[in-house]
Amino acid sequence: MKTNKFFFTAFGFIAGMVCGISMIGILAFKNGQTNSDPTPGVTPIAASDAHNYCKNFQSGAVPLNLVIKGFSIDKSQLDAMNNIIRENPALTGFRIYLGKDNTAKKIGIVVGVDNAGLDAVKNTIYNTDAKNLSPCPPICDNNSPIFLN
Fold first, then answer.
1. How far is CA 60 from the centre of its chain?
2. Which terminus of the chain has fewer Cβ atoms in its 10 Å neighbourhood, N or C?
3. Do both 24 and 47 map to the same domain?
4. What is the pLDDT of residues 105-147, one digit of tens each?
5. Residues 135, 63: contact at Cβ < 8 Å?
6. Are 60 and 126 members of one domain?
7. Is residue 11 over pLDDT 90?
8. Residue range of the domain that includes 67
9. What are the tens digits of pLDDT across the range 90-105?
10. CA distances from 51 to 61, 71, 140 (A)
11. For residues 12 and 147, what is the distance between their CA atoms, to the nearest angstrom?
């Protein structure tokens, strides 16, 4: 009887270890996000729509004659950049163009940039919310210790 008790205890322990290691292996090698649902406020668009949205913005843009200190982007642009880099990890950067959609809503158009510095328009281009998308100035943190003396 002691042999059977030892056998079942050892067998249970080994079976538990195998199951635990298997689960760790499965979870460790799971391939990133499996949810391909678009992020709210981040919509794929065609290059022709991006072109029209940029033209809409530029037709009413006020010239900026100040030195640009920085640029403010929304989380939606970051989400779009993450989507683009998952699609093509070989890209070296991103551009965010300012635009206005057909309802005159301010948008950001996010596109990947290849190693030659060209827009990667064969990849997905995203239309994003742009509530805070702007160069600084005019949208700046004037009390930031980065610029205060």
1. 28
2. C
3. no
4. 888 999 999 999 999 998 899 999 888 788 887 777 778 777 6
5. no
6. yes
7. no
8. 42-136
9. 999 999 998 888 898 8
10. 15, 21, 27
11. 65
